[in-house]
Write a structure and sequence with these properties.
The structure is a homodimer.
Chain A: E1 3-8, H1 16-31, E2 35-40, H2 46-57, H3 63-87, E3 92-95, E4 102-104, E5 113-116, H4 119-126, E6 130-134, E7 137-139, E8 145-147, H5 152-163, E9 168-173, E10 194-195, H6 197-205, H7 213-222, E11 226-230, E12 238-240, E13 254-270, H8 275-285, E14 290-296, E15 303-311, H9 315-324, H10 326-329, E16 333-346, H11 356-366, E17 373-377, E18 380-386, H12 390-400, H13 405-412
Parallel strand pairs in A: 1-2, 1-9, 2-6, 3-6, 9-11, 10-12
Antiparallel strand pairs in A: 4-5, 7-8, 11-12, 13-15, 13-16, 14-15, 16-18, 17-18
């Protein structure tokens, strides 16, 4: 008997009918003799509807109240899924985040999970019940309802799998697995059978929407075996675990894109020890995720320009933080560039192939695309480019690095 | 500075626009220098929508899961109302039932409030905040989400007013106050300016939907001054408190009706000590509210027939309980009569006017209406009659006891 954690996203539980379908899949899994903890998201577009209602009443609602509001979405799903299971004669108990013992930081809208008290869940599992947990939410130590931010249900599932030492964590979603690129953008994209945590982490961070990056991080840190698969089609998904089989010998495994990027430059910042840490500590305290950072010293010995990229939604908040701290930070002015995007190539094979970055720049320059920022890691290269060029860039890179499905077919013919 | 508790029902918070309207009323109240705790229901028909979803998945959902589901309705409203207040520059904090310290019995769907820990609310009030509490819900000692049953938001408001020693509890609703009869049934019904707890209690128990009977009971027990008023029109409502001004000298103050009544008769029950208490303890344990009880011994010395009335929704449950305990209870069979209703007259003046019941029976017999059961208290007389005769009965009684508005007008002419 294995304990599995299975997570069903918003589309998978988008209607009464789909919830019934999920209940049937759970029943099948139980018949295989497994114990189950199921994590669910809010139904379909219900979160967006709640956000719409909130915006009618307040253009900038307080995060605490947004969490109070949005946490109801998953609470609806857990109770409905329990009822659907009961109708099939299956014992099940729903639990909100706080009831399942998910304790988070005292931060709203994007809290991180601090600890999970598995006592209540284990009691129900021992009683032969399916435990249905509301994803995306928890409670701070002082009893405030918190949420983990969009996509946080993945993180809930992986964190529960880690805390419960589950055999595997299945992420059921509306795609069949992880692809070499977004199939909506690159029709020739192929599905991967297996991928490493680091590659998945880079892909997730780079905007491949299949898995929340924190979920992958959490899976890597706790060595949780992840399986990404479709809740609609009964086909094999993509397994995410350490040391995947090198199926293809390809240097690059995937091309990712993230279309909502803004570049911010703090100009004329006085050079001094602690200047950089001061700047980025302030942004971190305001919970602004900074992605690429470039420190351009230029010719001046006393002043420096610092550029960084953020999600475009964070621009207002970022500017406020910077302006409120102008005296401490000591800089001349701030400029920013909107309507940018980021394209990235990811692959564990890069470590032993130093020419990959150059090949990427070459591909983009052949397409006459301007590169605004560059960032590299051992297994990925990212370029910030204009948003209008994104589609062309992703498709050209997918072809350049030999990922197109058509080519594979061509070989077979 | 007075502390008031104000409750806004589902219709009053049925849309973003109406929530804004409620926020403005709260602002006015604050400008009068009062402290406020506001209790809200779920938005408009949202509870019914949730119930509809549940029924799609399970014909008889477990009460625990229904509570989990329905409690989201009020949680949505508290967060939205807080956001609307923030938009007006008013400090406010939303609290779910459990966050507000409302502890209930460990019973689902119709839990009673056991205790209220006011600490969290008082902290926010001292900080100059409006506290917005989710009505209708609480939590049991072991952290299960419970609900108080339909109309329970009134009870929440009164219980909070009692626990916080509030000056007054305002119940804002979609009617302007308490009437001598349901104005939709009796067009000539008049609004009362004041009424006693006992009269209100009888009216509430008898199905006059303005206030939940438990709310009135709780107000009476704790001597909470209630005010029932419209959230749409800015007019005086009806005050409910002890010893109302005898404005009219009328014997009867109101005619109430309750249209969903079923009469159940347990026939051939063996006479023995404890037989009756055994029967009704079983029903009470199953949380079935029994209204009128009639013990008809007839001619037989050894066996008795016991009739009682229940809400028609309880019939299935009642029959199950009786059948499962046939051996212990020792009876011949059960018969029941559906499609009945109850009409009642209520008035403190009855105590000194013993002929009132006779006058009621006379009125109904003149209308050729069959009386199936009778129940009397010091300040009310109720008759169970066929549902088809309800409208005629209520109107005839309203006229007979001099409550018609037209008459009052006629005197003025």
């Amino acid at each position: 008997m294995s304990l599995l954690v299975q997570k069903f996203g918003g589309t998978s539980v988008g209607s009464a009918e789909r919830i019934q379908h999920v209940a049937k899949r759970i029943k099948q899994e139980l018949q295989r003799g497994n114990q189950l903890v199921v994590v669910v998201s809010a139904m379909g577009k219900s979160t967006d509807q709640l956000i719409g209602l909130a915006k009618e009443l307040n253009a900038a609602p307080e995060p605490r109240e947004m969490d109070m509001l949005l946490a109801t979405g998953e609470q609806v799903t857990i109770s409905l899924l329990s009822m659907a299971l009961h109708a099939l004669g299956i014992k099940a108990t729903s639990m909100t985040g706080w009831q399942a013992g998910i304790q988070t930081e005292a931060v709203h809208a994007k809290a991180r999970i601090k600890a999970i008290d598995t006592k209540a869940m284990l009691e129900k599992l021992e009683d032969g019940q399916v435990v249905i947990v509301a994803g995306f939410q928890g409670a701070s130590e002082d009893g405030q309802i918190t949420t983990l931010g969009r996509g946080g249900s993945d993180t809930t599932a992986v964190a529960l799998a880690a805390a419960l030492k589950a055999e595997r964590c299945d992420i059921f979603t509306d795609v069949t697995g992880v692809y070499t690129a977004d199939p909506r953008v690159v029709p020739l994209a192929r599905q991967l059978t297996q991928i490493s945590y680091d590659e998945m982490l880079e892909l997730a961070h780079l905007g491949a929407g299949v898995l929340h990056p924190r979920a992958v991080e959490c899976a890597k840190n706790n060595n949780v075996c992840l399986s990404v698969r479709s809740s609609f089609e009964d086909v094999e998904g993509t397994i995410v675990k350490e040391e995947p089989a090198m199926e293809d010998g390809l240097v690059v495994h995937g091309v990712a894109h993230d279309k909502q990027v803004t570049k911010v430059t703090v100009r004329g910042m006085k050079k001094r020890i602690g200047a950089l840490s001061g700047l980025f500590s302030l942004l971190a305290k305001a919970h602004i995720n900074v992605d690429i950072i470039i420190n351009q010293s230029m010719y001046d010995l006393d002043y420096t320009n610092i550029s960084f990229s953020i999600h475009q939604d964070e621009l207002r908040n970022t500017l406020t933080v910077l302006e409120n701290n102008k005296e401490n930070l000591v800089y001349k002015d701030i400029i920013y560039e909107e309507d940018l995007c980021k394209v990235s190539i990811v692959g564990a094979g890069m470590i032993s192939n130093p020419g990959v970055a150059a090949e990427m720049f070459d591909c983009l320059s052949t397409e006459n695309i301007e590169i605004k920022m560059v960032s590299t890691s051992e297994i990925k290269v990212s370029c910030v480019i204009p948003q209008v060029d994104m589609l062309r860039a992703v498709q050209a890179l997918h072809t350049t690095f030999g990922l197109d499905k058509a080519k594979a077919k061509a070989y077979q013919e």
